[in-house]
Amino acid sequence: MDITGELVRLRAFRPDDAPAIAEALADPRVVAYLAQWAHGPYTLEQARAWTTEPATPGALNFAIESIADGAFVGSTGFHDIDHHNRHCGWGIWIGPPHHWGKGYGTEACVLSVEYAFRFLAMEKVHLYVYAGNDRARRSYEKAGFVSEGIRRRHYWRDGALTDVELMAVFRDHPLYSERIAPIA
């Protein structure tokens, strides 16, 4: 299923996304705030595997594509999907950096959260944001996320343990509640 907004489309990964993924994740500016990729370069072979292998159980991932030119501009996805308790984790990256500042991340965030509420029947979507990642934090706030607290010394980054902020958005947030029916 494709999820289309004004700026971006969320879609399934394709094998031809692999070079763009490898290029983006080879850029230290893109991976600076990504815990899972902070340990070295991301190869073309790893990118090919990402586009062809099924997601791990409890996860659902999307490629982010620019509506204007069809370019691959990033990735977004859900993890730890808990249908019983109706919450899931969510993450995103946009890259290479020439795609930053165009609204792609904010729109992908809103589309993702709406998808989680509408199709996954979630009540809550949560994420972690590194201390200092102000660009991402502003984007998340625009999509309705609020702070739930700080996890102290949670991820190893740049030779030290780093704090992350836990943020969440709920189904009844005004941005979503008027467009999504309540869960019975």
Automatic annotation (TrEMBL):
Residues 8-172 form the N-acetyltransferase domain. SUPFAM superfamilies: Acyl-CoA N-acyltransferases (Nat). One of its GO terms (molecular function) is acyltransferase activity, transferring groups other than amino-acyl groups. InterPro entries: Acyl_CoA_acyltransferase, GNAT_dom. PROSITE patterns: GNAT. Pfam families: Acetyltransf_3 (PF13302). PANTHER family: GNAT-FAMILY ACETYLTRANSFERASE (PTHR43415:SF3), SPERMIDINE N(1)-ACETYLTRANSFERASE (PTHR43415). This is GNAT family N-acetyltransferase. It comes from Candidatus Aeolococcus gillhamiae.
